Amino acid sequence: MVRKEMIAMLLAGGQGSRLGVLTQKVAKPAVSFGGKYRIIDFPLSNCINSGVDTVGVLTQYQPLRLNAHIGIGIPWDLDRNVGGVTVLPPYERSKGSDWYTGTANAIYQNLEYMDSYNPEYVLILSGDHIYKMDYEVMLEYHKANNADVTIAAMSVPMEEASRFGILITDDSNKITEFEEKPANPRSNLASMGIYIFNWKVLKEALLTLSDVPGCDFGKHVIPYCHEKSGKIYAYEFNGYWKDVGTLGSYWEANMELIDIIPEFNLYEEYWKIYTKTDRIPPQYIDGEAKVVKSIIGEGTEIYGEVSNSVIGEGVTIEKGAVVRDSIIMQDTVIGAGAIVEKAIIAEDVKIGANAHLGVGEYADSKYDPKVYQFDLVTVGEHSVIPEGVKIGKNTAISGVTEPNDYPDGQLESGGYIVKAGGNA
Description:
This protein is an alpha/beta fold. The strands form eight sheets. A seven-stranded mixed sheet has the order 5-4-1-8-13-10-14, sandwiched between helices. Strands 17-20-23-26-29-32-34 form a seven-stranded parallel sheet, with no helix packed on it. Strands 18-21-24-27-30-33-35 form a seven-stranded parallel sheet. It starts with 5 loop residues before the first strand and ends in a 6-residue tail after the last strand.
C-alpha cells in the first residue's frame, strides 16, 4: 500500500435532530444547501482543494442518500486506485454488532482502514459545517509547532461560548486547558471539531480509551492527549464557518449566499465547491415571472414570483405563486396562486394552489420548542399540503396532509401536523 502523508476521516453519521422534520429521513450531512449542494460537499471539496486525496466517510444515521450522493467520489476527483473516498458504515464483527457510540469510537472502529495507509497524520472532520479551509496550511502549522495534536479554533461571541469546546492558550497558541461546553467559559476560542493528529498519538489514545462508553474527542481523547504529552496547539481560523445545526442557522446561512457581496462565495474560481449533479435541463423563467435576488437551481421552472430565496433543482413555481425569503429544495412544486413566506421546504413536496404559508404572528411551538423556535414554516420531504389552507409561523409539517387535518382550513402558528411514515 502506498503510504499517505495525511488522510482524512469525515464524521457524517449525525442525525441533526435540531433540524426537525428536515432530517427525519435523511442524515444531516445529506441535507440540501445553496440550491445545488449538500452539506457534505463542503468538507469533501475542502479535502480535494487542499490536496488530501484519501477520505474515509463514516456514516450511520439514514445513510442511503449520503452513500448514493458520494458514490465512488467522481465529482470531487476522489475516484482513485489508491486512496480516494471510502464510505465506512458500522458493520457487524465476530463479537457482535456495534453502532458508533461517539465520535472517537467511530474512528476507533476504523483503525484497520487507517492502518492500511500508515499515514503520518490523520485529519478528523465533521460532515455538517459550511466553510472553506485549506487543510494543508493547517498541516504546515502543525509541523512547525512539532505538535501531537492541532485543533482548528475560532473566536465566537462570549454568550455563545458555552455551546462549544473552549480552548485556553498561552502566548504561543499552545493549549493549556480544554473545557467541553463550560457553563461559565473563561475564553471565547472555540474548537471547530477539526483536528490534525500525529497518527501514532491518535492510535495510542484510541486503543487506550477503547473501553470508554461513548468515547468522544472533546470529552475523552483531547483531555487524554493533553495530559499525556501537552503538545496540543490551537490553529486560529478567521474565515467563514457556519454550524448549520439549527433551523435558524440553516436558514441564515442559505440567505447569506444571496447577499450582494456574499460573506461565503460559491463562485470563486480557485476554491470550487464540487457536487454530484444529475440535472441536464437548464432553468426556465417565464415571460411573466419575476425573480429578484435569488439562487435558482438547474431544471427549475418559474412562472410566478420569487424574491430573496434559494430555489433548488427541478422545482416548479406555478403561475401566480409568490415565494419570499424561503428555501425550496429540489423537485418541489408550489401550486398556482400559493404564497410561501419565510419557509424551509424539503425535497419533493407539493404545495396546493392558493395555500398560504407563513401567516399571522409568531407563537411558541407545541411540538418541540427546542427545535422550533424561529418564525419559519418547516415542511419535511415528500409532504403534501392541500389547496387553499393557511399555515402560521413556527410550524412543522411532515407527511401527506389532507383538508380535514386543518381545522377551519388553517394550522395556527406554533402548531404541527406530523403523520406517521410521511414518505408517500
